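Dear colleagues,

I hope this message finds you well. In preparation for our joint manuscript, I am sending the DUF2381 family protein (Hyalangium rubrum) sequence together with its predicted structure, so that both groups work from identical material. I would be grateful if you could confirm receipt.
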Amino acid sequence: MLSPATLALALLLLGGTLAQAQPAPTREPRRRSVTLTGAPVEARIATGIRTFLVFSVPIRGKAVEVDPQRIKVVALGDVILAIEPLSEPRPGERWTLRVPLADGKAPDVAEFSLVAHPSEVDTEIDVARREESPTACPTCAPCAALNPADAIASGFISKDGVQTRELASFMDAASGFDSQEGLTYRAADWVLVDVEIIPPPGHPAWRPTGATLTSKTGEARVRAVKVAPGKLPNAVRVLVTTDKPPPSAGLKFTLRLNGPDGAQSFSIPAVTLPPAKEPKR
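The corresponding structure tokens are as follows:
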């Protein structure tokens, strides 16, 4: 028969084993937007889960300041930074992430305070600057980011207008990625592809860090990749703007969306552009 001391020790060890066997608490993914004010922005992180930071201005990614023993940078783009913690802050502990901004305005660094939360984790944070109040017309309504007058005055839309063509949905059986029906736009000097991407069920949060638009005989140089939340859960809306392709490239292209480092990329093989419109004289 076990002595009382031996029995107590056995129960203590068994209790510790059972406690260790308990599954980790489920953390609800959180997608949100923040505005930089100069104070650190709290970001909730969790081991094994990637947090995407999407900035409204370019960043100096190679100058990011973070402890590499604690945080791994898994993706880096002109406006996107993805991190994955190798461990987690203890309760009450905060880790610092500093991201230098490249637009020449103040603040010139976005600072984040990384914490662990028992029930939530930030999978995506859209980071914007505080809008400056207009000084020329303080009593007027705030100006839109790009209104029709601006688009025409800047030459983004010319007298030749914009042509559109529907983009059929596509599913990659190998990866499970799915693209919904979208649109392609074509103006005199630019092309834009607008499509919503849905990762397979259970796939971690995903968003492209770059793109290419190529045909068998040419390529359209990508100007910008804008990523926004999609209509469906875990989906992303991707808008890829390019220069006008050379005439030799034809109308049928493949859009490749590059995933973060080590993550799945996705290609849509049948992207047909509207034909170029003959310029008016």
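For the figure legend, we might mention the following. The domain at 161-272 is CATH 2.60.40.1640 (Immunoglobulin-like). The chain is about 10% helix and 40% strand.

With kind regards,
E.M.
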